[in-house]
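User: I want to check something. If I give you two sequences, will you return the structure for each one separately, not as a complex?

Assistant: Yes, each is folded on its own. Here is the first sequence with its structure:
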Amino acid sequence: MRTRKVVLSGLFLALGLLMPFITGQIPEVGNMLLPMHIPVLICGYVCGWQYGLVIGFITPLLRSVLFGMPPMVPKAICMAFELMVYGMVVGLAYQRMHYKKWRIYISLLLALIAGRVVWGLVAALVYGLLGINFGLGIFLTEAFVNALPGLILQLVLIPALIFSLERANLLEK
C-alpha cells in the first residue's frame, strides 16, 4: 500500500508541474483557474493527508525551480504553504469524517478555506518583509474574487472524480 501511495504521489506531483502549462504560463489565467491546486487536492483524497501535505509543499517550489513559474518570491513560497494545507486538510477531513454522504464536499470546502487563510497569512508576512502592502482588500481580491473560476472548477471537478473513484472501488469509502 505504501509503494502505491508513493507512486501515485509522484503522479500527482508530475501533474502539478505540468497542468499549469494548460494556462499557457500566463499568470493571470493561472491565478483564475488554479491548475496546480487540483492534483494536490486529489492527492490528499487518494493518498492521505501526509502525502497531500508533502506534495502540496514541494509542487510550487519545484515548479518555480524547474520552470521559473510561479516566481519563487513571493508567489511559490506562499503557494507552498497554501497547497500544503490543502493536501493535509482535505486528507484529514476526508479520512476522519463519519458523515459519509457529504464528506467529499465538506472536506474540500474546509481545505479551500483553510488553505486560503494560510496563504493570506504567509503572503502578509512575505509581502511585508518585502515592503509591499498586503491588506485585507488585496487578500480578499486575490484569494476569492480573482480565484473564483478556479474555486468553482475545483468544487465541480474534484467531487465528481472522487465519487467516481469511490464507485469503482479505487478509493476507500
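And separately, the second sequence with its own structure:
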Amino acid sequence: MSSNIIGSLIWVMFIFLSLFTHMIIKYLSGEVDFIITLFSRFTYSLPILFILAYIARKYLLFKVNNWKNIALRSFFGFVTMIMVFSALQLIPIGLTTALAQSSAIYVTLLSPIFLNEKIGLIRWSAVIFGLIGVFLMTNPISIINETSELSALGVYLAFGSALTHSALAIILRRIGKTEHPATTALIHNLLTSLVITFCIFFFGTKFYGKTGNFGIEILFTPNNVLYTLISLGMIGSFVQYFMAQSYKYAEATILVTLRYLAIPLATLFGYIIWDEIPSYNQIVGGLVIIGSCLLITYREIKKK
C-alpha cells in the first residue's frame, strides 16, 4: 500500500472523528453549559496529547523555537473553535461545515499580503465564484430583512470561523517549518484549557453561549453526560493526532481535496439525526464553494 493511500485513509478517519466531535457538541447544546463543553473539549484531550508528545519528543516535548507563532496559533485556533462550536448550537451542522470549509478562499485572498504569493487570473476567478457560493448559502439579504429562518448570529459565527481559520492556516504554514506538531498541539490545548479555567473561575459558566441543565457540577457527577464530555476531549486529541500523522504519509495537495468530504457528510448526518434539510440556495452555494476550493487546490498543484 502506497504512503499516499495510507495518509488518505488516516485523513478520512480525521474527517469522521472531527464531524463526530461536532455532533457531540450539537447534541450537548442545551444539556450542558457551553463553557463546560468547551472546557471538556480541551482539558480532557491533554492526557493523550501529553503521552503522544512524550513518545515523539521525550523530554523535549515543550521545546519551542518561536513562542510568538505558537501564541498566534493558539489564539486563532481557540477563536476558530469557539465560533464553530457556537454556530453548531444555532444553525444546521451542514451549513456550519460548508462555511467553515470555505477558508481556502480567504487564505488565497490573504496570501499576497502575508506570504508574498502572486494570485493569477484563474485563482482570482475561483475566489470570486467561492464568494458567490458563500453569498448563496448565507443569503445575507434575507438576514438583513429579517425574513431568514436561519439564526443571523449563527451564520455570522460560521462565516467568521472561516476568516479566523484562514489566518490560522497561514500561521500553520510558518510553524510547520520550525515546530513539531505534537508540541504545538499540546501547548495549544494546555494554554486554551488555562484560559477557559480562568474564565470559569471569575465569570462562571453562563456568561457565553447556550446555557444547559448542567453547569460546573457535572464535572464532579459521574453519569452519562460526564462520560460524553470526557469522550469529547479524548476524541478531540485523536483528531489532532490523525491530522498531523496524515501529513507524514500523504502529499498535502491530496489531503486538501479530501477535506471537502466533510460538507456532504455533515449535511447527511444533520438530515438523519436532526431533520435538517438544506435549502436549494444552500445546496447550490455549497457546490460552488467546493468547486472553487478544488480549483484553488488544482492551481496550487500546478504552481508547485
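Because they were folded independently, the notes below concern the second chain alone. The CA atoms of residues 142 and 148 lie 5 Å apart. The chain has one domain: 3-303.
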